[in-house]
């Protein structure tokens, strides 16, 4: 294959890889939490048992706790209104 044929072939090849996520669906904020190694190991084991990545497991558990605690004080849950829209 000549160089010019190779270049033309590459230019017309379909791009591969993960598709882009829709605008607004990516998570951009970070929360840093300090913990002991044993805690992190336990969290990772629990996440694996639930079939979730560690960050997804932590986020789901925090959301669950927030919903419960905010319901106890009859406060709105900001992330629920975004999900139901």
What's the number of extended β-strand segments? 0
Shape: elongated
Rounded radius of gyration (Å): 22 Å
- N-to-C CA distance: 54 Å
Listing every helix as H and every strand as E from the N terminus to the C terminus, the arrangement reads HHHH
Query: Residue-averaged pLDDT, rounded?
Result: 85
Low-pLDDT ranges: none
Summarize the amount of helix as a percent range.
55-70%
Count every helix, treating DSSP H or I runs of 4 or more residues as helices. 4
Going by helix content, strand content and strand pairing, the class is mainly alpha
Strand content: under 5%
Largest sheet: none
How would you characterize the overall build of this protein?
With 85 residues, this protein is an all-alpha fold. The chain contains four helices and no strands. It has a domain of 57 residues. 59% of the residues lie in helices and 0% in strands. It is elongated and about 70 Å long. The termini are far apart.
Features:
single chain, 85 residues, mainly alpha, 0% strand
Describe the structure in brief.
Helices cover 59% and strands 0% of the residues. The protein has 85 residues and is mainly alpha-helical.
Write the layout of secondary structure elements.
Blueprint lengths: L2 H10 L24 H14 L3 H19 L5 H7 L1
């Amino acid at each position: 294959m000549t160089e010019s044929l190779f270049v033309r072939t590459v230019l017309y090849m379909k791009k591969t890889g993960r598709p882009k996520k829709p605008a607004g669906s990516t998570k951009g904020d970070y929360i840093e939490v300090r913990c002991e190694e044993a805690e992190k190991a336990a969290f990772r084991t629990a996440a694996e048992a639930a079939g979730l990545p560690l960050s997804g497991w932590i986020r789901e558990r925090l959301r669950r706790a927030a919903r419960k605690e905010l319901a106890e004080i009859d406060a709105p849950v900001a992330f629920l209104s975004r999900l139901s829209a």
